[in-house]
Amino acid sequence: MSTPAIPSAATLRLPAPAKLNLMLHILGRRADGYHELQTLFQFLDFADELGFALRDDGEIRLHSPVDGVPHDSNLIVRAARLLQQHSQCPLGADIWLDKRLPMGGGIGGGSSDAATTLLGLKHLWQLHCDEDQLAELGLRLGADVPVFVRGRAAFAEGVGEKLQPVTLSEPWFLVAIPQVLVSTAEIFSDAELTRDSPPIKVRSLPEGGGRNDCQPVVEKRYPEVRNALILMNKFVPTRLTGTGSCVFGSFPNEVEADRVRRQLPGTLPSFIAQGRNISMLHRKLEELGRK
Fold first, then answer.
1. Read out DSSP for 139-194?
2. Average pLDDT over residues 93-120
């Protein structure tokens, strides 16, 4: 259920868009416990929305609680305080969140909220940090945050932080949301996870992405995800995004995506959105810059 609408007190409103991992290959486990991977990110025109208002007392206050997440642990609050500390900015902010992206869905909700906070407060506080500095701060919050900071579809390597922009076709996607919260840590620690995929070059990427090495583990552990994949595969080739619960299929247009969506049961929530090589957030910031 969405949190209440963002109030008129918010002087800046920005989207925090979803992403899809069109492929995800796990190459090996590093000595620090993290995994070397290769993945292909594309954004969706579907998003959380954040509202910001300036405070002159240095306080960071998130007015939209998220179930099960203490205020000070929320990535939005952590991002705001990290930027405040990095820039030595004396200003604060009131922040509101209209939550639309499912938690644990693999479509980047928390990471995207953090990136929108970094970019939104840079704008609100009139800071002079560049994109590289913000991406570096974002990496401290999570491996996926830099791709949202940079806002361009990308082939990612390392733990997901080494980004190479790519230009992809922009199909329509039907994304189904099995009602289960998938634990990323649980998936990456599973003994059966494939950890020896051979590395590929960006030029050899299959159009539309490829397989997700995490999918067999998620399917085995979460029957809700397996059932959604079986159901959607009757209509369109379907795969998992990231390590989350969401599964997706691509279509040449919105009409065909909607035709399949109408055949899904009411017990399986879903949405339709277009894939984008430039994120909604960056298109909005560009628009603000022209005003």
1. HHH-TTHHHHHH-B-EEEETTTTEEEE------EEEEE--S----HHHHHT-TTS-
2. 95
Rounded-to-integer distance, Cα 101 and Cα 42, Å: 15
Check if the beta carbon of residue 63 is closer than 8 Å to that of residue 96: yes
Domains of the chain and any CATH numbers: 1-291 (3.30.230.10)
Catalytic pick from 48, 94, 98, 144?
144
Cα-Cα-Cα-Cα dihedral sign, residues 74, 75, 81, 82? positive
- Six-digit token pair at 62? 């998130």
CA-closest candidate to residue 109, choices 30, 185, 170, 44? 44
Instruction: Tell me the pLDDT of the chain averaged across its residues.
Output: 93
Can you list the pairs that 224-230 forms with residues at least 24 positions away whose Cβ atoms lie under 8 Å? Answer: 224/178, 224/179, 224/180, 225/178, 225/180, 225/182, 227/178, 228/176, 228/178, 228/268
> Can you tell me the distance from the alpha carbon of 210 to that of 242, in angstroms, rounded to the nearest whole number?
12
| Phi, then psi, of 95 in degrees rounded to 5 | -130, 135
Among residues 19, 99, 122, 284, the one annotated as catalytic is: 19
| 235 CA to centre of own chain | 25
Q: How many CA atoms are closer than 13 Å to the CA of 291, on its beta-carbon side?
A: 6
C-alpha distance from residue 197 to each of 2, 25, 128, 212 (Å): 39, 6, 41, 11
**What's the CA gap between 271 and 240, in Å, rounded?**
15
Per-residue pLDDT at 291 = 60
19 catalytic, yes or no? yes
Number of Cα atoms under 13 Å in the Cβ half of residue 154? 19
Per DSSP, the three-state class of 248 is: strand
How many CA atoms, within 13 angstroms, populate the side-chain half-sphere of residue 208? 11
For 217-255, how does the pLDDT look when each residue is reduced to its tens digit (9 = 90+)?
999 999 999 999 999 999 999 999 999 899 999 999 999
